[in-house]
Amino acid sequence: MSYKAFTNDDYQALLNIIDDKDRVLYDEIQEEYGHDELGSVSCPPDVVVRPKTTAEVSDVMKYAYDNNIAVTARGAGTGLVGACVPIEHGILMDVSLMNQILELDDDNLTMTVQPGVLLMEIGDFTEEHGLFFPPDPGEKSATIGGNISTNAGGMRAVKYGVTRDFVRELEVVLPSGKVLTLGGKVVKNSSGLDLKDLIIGSEGTLGIITKAVLKLLPAPKKVISLLVPFPTLRQAIDTVPKIVASESVPIAVEFMEKDVILDAEEYLGKKFPDHQSDAYLLLRYDGNSTEEIEAEYEPIADLCLESGALDVLISDTQEREDSIWKARGAFLEAIKGSTTDMDEVDTVVPRSQVNEMVAYFPEVSKKIGLRMKCFGHAGDGNLHTYMLKDDLSSEEFQLRLGQAMTLVYHKAAELGGLVSGEHGIGYAKRAYLEETMDDVNLELMQGIKQTFDPKNILNPHKVFQS
């Protein structure tokens, strides 16, 4: 596909749309706009546009469409797969200034937001009103638009589901500049094909989200966690299906090993509450009273002990709760700090196959000669595995990284799993999606892209596009 080379005339045309030089960056563009948190995929845009309204997004898209200029949408740039990297240069649409909370609807238990609102801002706002937006990805400085675009999950997915389950309505600007409203505040919807759900998880390839209506829940009044040490990781993970099949489903079921905990301790400068084991499950329960939560977790504590747990530690004070979850929240940054560079896979497999998948990682590490660390969401089968550069040369690291990823993704597919559970495919993981997904599925995705974006100007070379 050939795109128009961006010129000064195009810059002047964009200034006519957005009459503010501070929001149309051309001569001096910060380096960070060329990459996301992955870092290894980098490509600078020709221009950065920072709209504040849907009308501005629409007018920029109309201009780009008429002139065949590539456009890439970007929020906070916290992604890990290069999804917001402008591979064809062109226009980078930074929606971070569209950051207003527009409405709280108490009657329908919804809130309406622009795409640049941060996840932490949604958390603070809903807490002030006694409400709760359950999706809980680890990166709280991510924008809600980015979360919707990747269908982000997080640790609460076991009980509450993922971002898709809490989006009622979207306003979307198509590549042509047309503005659509998809879904609504209604609880049920059987009115034709669900185009809203096509946009969710499409990683900015089908349209640019300019407004979202989010479903809220009444906030639980109390949260208690259980830290459960096991002699081995296999015993810990073998217990997870029993927990999920019980009548007392936790918010979260996480697994972790001692080496990752030690990294977090060093990173935070604080001790983890327990060191008696090499493997742990971390369970979290919520409810309206301590008594209600105790009734939920006591049978699960007994079940864990019957399954070989060494102990069940209850974090029934805020101090204990904070110490555990701050460590869990620091895992990614702690692993980053333990090496010179890294990349990640966030494969997802059926819960029944988590043990086999986790057991495969040391085999890959030994075979390829690449240090690897793993933790993740045992309750939903989403495993975060980090491949560490250490003292390898950049060339050798990329070679071994590709070999290791191929082995891991093919093993996940063999076990009935998929390439990504929550981070998306973006640019960096395209090849692995193509290798492991049925050709008919890919053809259907490409056909949907062609319908939404016949000129292929919106976020080219991402997800399923060569």
UniProtKB/TrEMBL annotation:
Q: Which Pfam families match?
A: FAD-oxidase_C, FAD_binding_4
Task: Pinpoint the FAD-binding PCMH-type domain residues.
Answer: 41-219
SUPFAM superfamilies documented for this protein: FAD-binding/transporter-associated domain-like (SSF56176), FAD-linked oxidases, C-terminal domain (SSF55103)
Record keywords, A-Z: FAD, Flavoprotein, Oxidoreductase
Which PROSITE patterns does the UniProt entry name for this protein?
A: FAD_PCMH
* Source domain of life: Bacteria
Needs which cofactor?
FAD
Q: Which InterPro entries match?
A: FAD-bd_oxidored_4_C (IPR004113), FAD-bd_PCMH (IPR016166), FAD-bd_PCMH-like_sf (IPR036318), FAD-bd_PCMH_sub2 (IPR016169), FAD-linked_Oxase-like_C (IPR016164), FAD-linked_OxidoTrans_Type4 (IPR051914), Oxid_FAD_bind_N (IPR006094), Vanillyl_alc_oxidase_C-sub2 (IPR016171)
Please state what the protein is called: FAD-binding oxidoreductase
The root-end lineage is: Bacteria, Bacillati, Bacillota, Bacilli, Lactobacillales
